[in-house]
């Protein structure tokens, strides 16, 4: 089964188009380096929870929208190799003026890698 990297980010709502441009730039690199699919989700129905929720997890303010993204890889070995190459790629360097600016506070991003254990398809 595939391997998934998941990301939850608080993005200033006013930066939605900048977020989309940033995602289009960097998501192409994931595909180039072996990912088979990348999904970027913009919060639409993200309810407040009683104990915890997506907004609290990333300390989103009322001026921010929660984005939920994931990268699907064919397997963990491909993911590990791709992520290593990505860390070394100058196209990932935020100080490179050719790269789109980061439109969110990366310190509040939560992320992790997940082994797929169940897959149900229509």
Automatic annotation (TrEMBL):
UniProt cross-references to InterPro entries, sorted A to Z: Dimeric_a/b-barrel (IPR011008), DUF1428 (IPR009874)
Region named Disordered: 81-107
Domain of life: Bacteria
Pfam families assigned: DUF1428 (PF07237)
Name by which UniProt lists this protein: DUF1428 domain-containing protein
């Amino acid at each position: 089964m595939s391997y998934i990297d998941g990301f939850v980010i608080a993005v200033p709502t006013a930066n939605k188009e900048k977020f989309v441009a940033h995602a289009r730039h960097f998501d192409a690199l994931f595909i180039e380096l072996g990912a088979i699919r990348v999904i970027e989700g913009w919060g639409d129905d993200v309810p407040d929870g009683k104990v915890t929720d997506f907004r609290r997890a990333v300390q989103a303010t009322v001026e921010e929208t929660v984005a939920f993204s994931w990268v699907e890889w064919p397997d963990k070995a491909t993911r590990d190799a791709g992520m290593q190459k990505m860390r070394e790629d100058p196209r990932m360097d935020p100080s490179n003026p050719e790269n789109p600016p980061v439109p969110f506070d990366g310190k509040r991003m939560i992320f992790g890698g997940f082994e797929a254990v169940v897959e149900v398809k229509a």
